[in-house]
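Appendix B. Extra example for self-study. Work through it before the problem class; the solution is given directly after the inputs so you can check yourself.
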Amino acid sequence: MRYAALLPALATAAALSACGSSTPAVSNGSGGHLSGTLTIADWEFLESGNGPRLDAAVSAYEKAHPKVKVQTIGIPSDSYGTTIDTELAAHKGPDVLVIGGGTSLYDLAPANLLSPITLTSAETRTLIPQNSQGMYNGTRYGVVWEFNENDLLYNKQLFQQAGITAPPTSFGSFLSDCMTIKRKTGDYGFVARNMLNEEALWYSDYTLDWLAAFGGAWTNAKGQFTIDAPASLAALTDFKKVYDSGCMATGQTATVFRPEFEAGKIGMLIDNIDAGYTYTAANKVLTNTTMGGAPIPFPAHHSGSAAIMLGINRYAPNQALAENFVQWLMSPAGQQSLVPGIEPNQAGTTTAAMPQSFVASHAWIKPFLAEGQSAPQVLNLDGKPQDSTPFSDLIMPYIEKALQNQATPSQALRAAQAAAIQKFGN
Amino acid sequence: MTEIAESEAAARPTAARGVSRPGRMRSRRTRRSWTSSPYTYVALAFVYMAVFILYPMVRTIWESLTDTSLLNPSAGTFVGLANYQALLHNGTLAQSLYVTIMYVLLSVSVAMVLGVVCAMLVERVTVGRSLAKSALALPWAIPTIATGILFTVVLDPDIGIVDHLLNETHLPSVGWLTNNTLAFFSVSAITVWTLFPFVMLITISAMKGIPAELYDAVAVDGASAWSTFRAVTLPGIAPTLRVVTVLEVIWAFQQFQLAFVLTGGGPVNGTNFLVINLYKTAFDDKQLGMASAIGVVGLLLASAFVVVYLLVERRARAQ
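Solution. Structure tokens for the complete assembly:
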């Protein structure tokens, strides 16, 4: 009973500490009192072209905060997801992390491994629509680090050799051009991922480049599965036509076919803006003038949107520093620092645009920019995004079954629909 | 009591009642320290086994009875046999078990035969035997992950040397890793390539233990090479081959890198071995509890084989 007298004091102290613990939303990332080392993890820090530029971009934070040291942590892309998942689950890992490459915000947020992010109303007004992918249950856990769309990249020289004067604008002309290139040049007309040993990336490519490009999605706005819907069936049927045509290189992983495209041995592929930049960076066979870009020639004429998010580790030792960094990054100053690091990918706010000089010197980029922010988000399941990762495990073997003629596309997708409903509910 | 202890005891004066003689105490002390040292050394091995084998095994069995998630490993709740019930109704596990058993049977049996044949052939080589042995042992020395990456290029339908040779003979390229059936046999063949050198080396070593007189005796009787092998070589190396078979089976059950790199478990789950299934369940689906249940199923499968081996070994010894 004698301790009862302390209760009001304790309650007051608790209330005051609660007020003090939430970091106020600082509009320009000011926080000059902050000090320490801030760790940021991303697989792109290891990339030969992007890595140093990204490193410099995030290290610009140090100029505004002299007492802070930014330490970038590069983790190989093929082990990024597993590494980050297990580190965060062990309450370790970087302070700030790029969420992609095998990690998913919809896995980490429900597991309470990400900290909520608070932005000012001014910053919120400048956010592009893709930032909605950082929301979970009404709370923001991620902001767009970078985003891009996929479009058709083609080798103008092979087109010329095959007598093709313009990139295809429909599936029919796409298939025809593919077969013509193979027949007249001996080189493959098209390539895409098609093997389970690249399952996560194949799921991403297929969903963005085929499913979304045919106007489909795995779920509707109510979260109900639409795996066997007409658009999805059309996408798989046509993908199988290309797979069976002989003009598509099958059985190759991206580590093989991407260099082949760069070496000018493949006519077309559908890829993101970042990959296009890499193909022309060496300026040998494929250059900014010999590689063309065009809208995806499938019914919807756009791919899905792939936004890579940035989040804060809930168990980061430097929580205040991490929050301040993210707020700085989304400010005009931070975005201006970030753009040179992520280009040709696009940033997450409207305050930082790609320099016109860059666009002028990379003509193939224009179709990508024209899609802008309108590309739909289809990678994560609408209404049940936390099931997205196990869903990709479920769906791709069915896609493969159809390609291997073990089921018709219709049978495969109907079976996948039933399996998904059984596993995740509808 | 040893002779030294006895003589020492006899030389000392008899102690007063209730006081043990120093000689006897010394001999008891000597006997205790002499017999406790082996247990001390063995205890180290037991500690290692307890920490790195027994504890993880028990922990895995416990995890298999929970719904533990990879992203929240300390928050799993007990669900009893629910994971096992789900696995029973899950067609993927049944297929995993089937392809795993087929893969183990095929790759181990071929590796054993190939290893013994190569051992016999190498022993017949007089000039360059060491070189031949080293060359044949090379696949075993290459890290498995490197072997997997190497063969993704070798079997590539466009740039791989295998299809290049086929094309040179006017044969079409083959989907070694993209055809459901072929992928299984391709992975099995590459596994044999990595397993047979160990069989060869152990067989060569075992053959050296067979007395030369036995070969002389059958030669006098005019036995053929095959009869010699059946009558002398095979019985001599049989115990070693049984042990090697057990090891090869266990290694084949645990084989992960090759299938993961070459096919990722596809096409159409054609190479979705138990450990691949376990990995995907743990790290893609993030279901540690379910993955542990798959691990326990694998453990029971491997244990069943070991029990069969022990019964065969016991019968062989009785004979």
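Self-check: Residues 1-28 of chain A have pLDDT under 50 and may be disordered. If your reasoning did not lead you there, revisit section 3.
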